[in-house]
């Protein structure tokens, strides 16, 4: 704002009036319009800058979630003339729905098979990347390759690799003298196959997060251990792992929030099964069931109830984790 | 993992053999890693790259040959299959749509997050604390679960099938605001802002001339991550778009859904969809790695 002073005196002879902070108390009668404008600028600008986020988030994030809760209390068929209020009927139906529990078990099962090995491998991979490698950035980019690729494309490719009759993976299995595995029909193996896709995608990414945490560990701790004659393995288990605990929890939690919403992999795993998640829903996940109920069976009320139950589960897990992290942070020595 | 440092060792330590000084003392190992470490890493990266190779391998043969012989080297049939992909799905349109959607979403998220981040990091106003707590709290909220009312709203206003329906719900992210706030708090000194204010800059000019130049790296990173997330988004576009006007991901899904699946055709499509991403990755991989190591979070 470089407007001319409204006082018509000799140009330049006037020193500029001192700028005042908005906290200044100044006497009455000294309020120039310009001062007021600045004051307004200071007061209002922050709200203007954060308004777009809050307005948009309210419209496309918060409102839909709350409205989902509202819809879940109705018998809300897509395209029906009226939507009768049914109270918590959708919820009681849902909790008695074996397909829903099946989907819950599948979701947690796939999540467990994918998270546990993933974290272990990520830590080991980070330890390897934490050595004096030649061409460090190249290696780091290399392990990140799966993360950037298109999830849909990769799921389709993996679906092909896991094919029963002609799948490459079964050819390898047979080569080693085992029987071919029906990756799609057998519940356990279908979970393993889907978890493999998740692991393949996220292990490198998580390894980089762990690597960053490893590099933040002060080196004199290792030095002291080295002086005391601790072996490398001992240093890893007694120093590195405990120091990584907060990061590992963070990785596990983000994996949880993502893993409980798994959808693309089971939908595209087998082209013919679609949203069923296999002939007997053996790998149907909760979000996949929600998609099927809401957008294929057109039962929006029921799907909304499912969304809310899943939402509460996710928030509960995130909350438990928050408490865990806080306890660890207060009891930890770092 | 014994350490190597350029600092003098603690006096109690036995004298260490002299080590080669390196300009960046970041290593935690005594010497260059051996063959085993490189071997494991190479195996891991080959495993990471295999599906891409497989996709191209299948796409470069014709269906009959592939079923009969299961070759391990690429054939010369890729462009034939690529042509069939172009006939089967509106590939170029899908690519253009994905660029439009991801580009718009990226610009919007970066601009709005930087503005809000600046306000939260550097300006004083009533309610700043609680509002920021609100932003952090929404980080854990899976907005995906609000798709049912979103769909109803889009259907109500006749937006279904348009790109706007995919763009609007993604115009802001809590993660973006949080990320920019953390960065601006550290990267922009208060004195600089004070100085600009003293010189008579309005708020917006202060933001433009003082804050923006300093946060370019963080904004670029946020942009890359937002673009990738938006490019790979699938559930919502699948619901709200149709086969005539798809994004890349939705088009691929349509390519695959059918009773008889021609592998060579489908995997030609996945190969073609992967190439642009690989190019972007080769150009920006360094920044992506840096972004994750600075504490990027899954969206």
TrEMBL record, chain A:
Gene Ontology BP term (one): transmembrane transport
CDD domains with a match to the protein in the record: TM_PBP2
Composition skew (Basic and acidic residues), residue ranges: 11-22
UniProt-annotated location(s): Cell membrane
GO cellular component, one term: plasma membrane
Keyword terms: Cell membrane, Membrane, Transmembrane, Transmembrane helix, Transport
Membrane topology: Multi-pass membrane protein
Ranges for region Disordered: 1-25
InterPro entries assigned to the protein according to its UniProt record, in alphabetical order: ABC_transporter_permease (IPR051393), MetI-like (IPR000515), MetI-like_sf (IPR035906)
Domain ABC transmembrane type-1 span(s) in chain numbering: 104-321
Main localization (coarse): membrane
Residues spanning the membrane: 46-67, 108-132, 144-168, 188-213, 243-263, 305-324
Similarity comment text for this entry: Belongs to the binding-protein-dependent transport system permease family.
UniProt-recorded name of the protein: Cellobiose transport system permease protein
Organism: Saccharothrix saharensis
UniProtKB/TrEMBL annotation, chain B:
InterPro entries on file: MetI-like, MetI-like_sf
Primary localization class, coarse: membrane
Keywords: Cell membrane, Membrane, Transmembrane, Transmembrane helix, Transport
A GO biological process held by the record: transmembrane transport
UniProt key word Lipid biosynthesis: no
Subcellular location, record wording: Cell membrane
Stretch list, region Disordered: 1-24
Domain ABC transmembrane type-1 positions: 95-284
PANTHER family xrefs: ABC TRANSPORTER PERMEASE PROTEIN MG189-RELATED, ABC TRANSPORTER PERMEASE PROTEIN MG189-RELATED-RELATED
Similarity comment: Belongs to the binding-protein-dependent transport system permease family.
Protein name (Swiss-Prot/TrEMBL): Cellobiose ABC transporter membrane protein
Originating organism: Saccharothrix saharensis
